[in-house]
Amino acid sequence: MTRAAIYTRISLDTEGEALGVARQQQDCRDLAARDGLDVVAVFTDNDTGASTRSRKKARPQYADMLRRARDGEFGVIVSYSNSRLTRRPLELEEIITLYERHGVRFVTVVSGNDDLSTADGRMVARIKASVDAAEVERTAERVARKHLESAREGKPVAGTRPFGWQPGGRELDAKEAKLIRDAAADIIAGVGTYAIAKRWNDAGVTTSTGRPWQGHVLARMMKSPRLAGWRIHQGKVAIGRDGQPVRGQWEPVLDQTTHDAVVAALSPEDNRSRVPRKNARHYLLTGTLRCGLCGAVMYGNAAKYPTYGCSGNGHTVAASVAPVDALVTEVVLRWLADRAVETPKLEFDGAARLAEVEGDIARLMASFTARELSAEVVFPAVAQLEGQRDELRSQQRRMEAAGARPDLTTVDRATWDRMSVDERRAVVETLLAAVLVRPATRKGNQFDPDRIEFVWHDIPAAEDMA
Questions:
Q1: CB 459 within 8 A of CB 431
Q2: Which of 20, 126, 183, 211 is the most buried (most CB within 10 A)?
């Protein structure tokens, strides 16, 4: 009997039960029995596409099957249909080459058997592959159009339940929504997303897919405009036919002002949402402590005796973490105890211009939709306005980030002792522009406080702000 292999595949298995490939395999076994083939191997790619549009997942079983066919383990490949084997014309050429060089045939349950030994047979196989590929592309276009219409209507995205909402994505999950609001307040106050993720994991809170939280995942969720009620399409806020941003058909978790402050706090300039470099965010003064020679940021290391250090430009400056942190803590708490201060409230003064620019963009897009203005007129003007809008929004985020500071009036020694490292760091960064570490001038390991220089922000007193 001729040895054969069965190949089965299904593009989408939402239930994860592999029922589609099981049905294909049985049909292929029936065909093999009728044709007197001895099935020696079965290859299955479940929940994997085989079209020119399927770039997300490789087909490891398909690749292994071709390799073993070239090695002579079997001479026939059985599949349910041509499209189950491949919808990629380039892959069909691999199959044709496999037949020409190694004599491996492929037969199907429902698509017939193309004679790859003749020009006409190869032509028919190529036509089938082209038709399959075209159908996939037409389907993709229909799906893309449907997704665009759903976005313009503000409908929730089908699929995985978004964290913070009940199944269906319209009504809030009270417990998860509160977690998000608490996280927003913490982020604005200076707490990092890795600390929040750890707290959630310790409390048994998982993502909507049941996985543990990671800092970058939580940061991505907190920056999503969906939390403030905006519909997302292809990674951006969807724009309706009227040229206006689309509100989603669901209850928002955060108001716009709060969400803007969260996005500002998690902006690239902040780095709190990123993986700490050299254990950077584990230490109180990383980002504030700087080398007194070159001005570079000094990072803490995780040695037996943790040390802040700078190694660059032919010099080494270092200081033990514990005494430096203790000195800065004492200086900060004394400074706060001696002064009645308030965190300055900063306001963005470009709001009117931003609203004007956004209105101009909306009017131009509405005129284009109504066919009152041509694309040649509208889109160059819109591109210029979008540049102005993006710059104004960037200024707004920077201003909000600068204003997102902890309430200094509540910070005393007892409060400090209860704070996390992130919360303490936020207080330090509010008060101090930098802490400089000068090179050591004394021999030995004894800490010299004279090496430390404080550079203060200009923080107004409470009476100055009345």
A1: yes
A2: 183
